[in-house]
Amino acid sequence: GDLMFIGRRDHQFKVRGVRVNPSEIEAMLEKNSIIERALVVADESHMTLISFIQISENSISKPNSDSVVENGTAVFFVNASLGEAISIELQKFLPQYLVPSLYVFTHKLPTLPSGKVSRKELPPLSEIRKLLSVSVNETKQLSKTEEQLCYVIKGILQLDNVLLNVSFFALGGNSLSAIELASGIEETLHCSVPVS
Q1: Is the dihedral of CA 83, 62, 159, 29 positive or negative?
Q2: What does pLDDT average to in each consecutive run of 10 residues of the chain (196 residues)?
Q3: How many Cβ atoms from other residues are within 10 Å of residue 164's Cβ?
Q4: Strand, coil or helix: what is 25?
Q5: Backbone φ and ψ of 157, nearest 5°
Q6: Cβ contacts of residue 22 below 8 Å, gap of 6+?
Q7: What value, to the nearest 5°, has the Cα angle with vertex 74 and ends 73 and 80?
Q8: Which of 73, 107, 121, 174 is deepest in the core (most CB within 10 A)?
């Protein structure tokens, strides 16, 4: 007979060659006082981890309707500054490869009758990435250098647009893509940027 491998049942995955148990990361996230519940998934196309975080309604308000993804009864949004603060805190306790590069917030994660998070009701990662592509404030004129830098970042992170005031890592970058960024800057802007 034939033996078919159809995947794992325990939600473990590999990121950059390292086996990751997401429950360890979720437990560290849930130690944060504003986080009620967390779920970590792999974005295999970008080789990154994405964390879906349920926060209390009074800890942060829902942004305007242009920057949210609605999926069923849940509303998901990205808050780059809060995500970066959580990431900095996590880096104190976890190695870099276990720190998610993107944090998606909601006031209520979709659940199954058993109380577990319904992964099927989470928005597609492509929709989440579109939240990061909110266009730059059109009243600000970009310099030629800023335009070139945005072009390089968009190409590396596969985004339609980037925000100038948001960290490369909060947009979904990681240490490997930072090396690509340094190379892209050197090639496009003809200046050397150290990666450290």
Answers
A1: positive
A2: 71 75 92 92 77 84 64 77 87 87 88 89 80 50 84 84 70 82 91 84
A3: 12
A4: helix
A5: -90, 0
A6: 11, 12, 13, 39, 40, 41, 42, 49
A7: 160
A8: 174
Question: Residue 128's closest CA among 25, 45, 191, 188?
Answer: 45
Listed in sequence order, the residues at least 6 apart from 156 whose beta carbon sits closer than 8 Å to its beta carbon are 173, 177, 180, 181, 184
Length of the chain: 196
The Cα–Cα gap between 127 and 193 comes to: 32
Q: What is the pLDDT of residue 182?
A: 92
Round to whole Å and give the CA distance between 126 and 51. Answer: 14
The burial class, CB within 10 Å (0-12 / 13-18 / 19+), for 101 is buried
Please give the Cα distance from 69 to 49 (Å, whole number). Answer: 19
pLDDT at position 163 is 65
Do 74 and 37 form a contact (C-beta atoms < 8 A)?
A: no
- pLDDT given at position 165: 64
Distances (CA, A) of 33 to 56, 76, 91, 93, 172: 10, 20, 17, 16, 24
The torsion defined by the Cα of 25, 26, 28 and 30, in degrees rounded to 10, comes to 170
Q: Distance between CA 37 and CA 5 in Å, rounded? A: 31
Task: Enter the pTM of the model.
Answer: 0.70
